[in-house]
Here is the input.
Amino acid sequence: MTAKRDELLAHDADGIREFDNALPRWWLYGFYFTIGFAIVYFANYHILSTPVFGRATLTAEYADDVKRAAASQPRPAPGASMAVVALTDAHGLEEGKEIFEGPTNVCFSCHRADLGGLVGPNLTDAYWLHGCTAAELVANVKTGFPAKGMLPFGTGQKLTDEQVLQVVSYVLSKRGSNPANPKPIETERDQLCK
Here is the structure.
């Protein structure tokens, strides 16, 4: 016995009965086309080592993008280091102060707004933990010291390279400012910076 088309079926679900209505052919052919397209696309871009349809595989595109990004970054010659010079202009120092005290960065919460030190060390005296030069301080701010509670702030984490240099320049400009009630010198802060 063949089923009759376009009739109300006998079963129901919660009082809802189903009408047997065949899908239009154009809809079915479109659905089959999308299935076929998905299979060809997946095979072309994810399975074949050399795609049939012209574009490189996703892995090759990624490797190419990494090469282009690496080539666009300035790199020092082997054995040489890039010179980092602290800013001295008023605008750069003011920007550094705004970043240091800003609500999105938490520098002041550990080092105090006057840089006298709280949880973190005093940044106004001559005794430092991890270097004295602008280049060393830039590297410290970028990488942070997670074991001591300082998060990394550079290389795309929170601050741009220019902002890191502005903060470091502001900190260096405050060396010797002698704030009220500074944090005492810890025994581990034995590197004398002049």
About this structure: The mean pLDDT is 79. The CA atoms of residues 94 and 145 lie 25 Å apart. The chain has six helices and four strands.
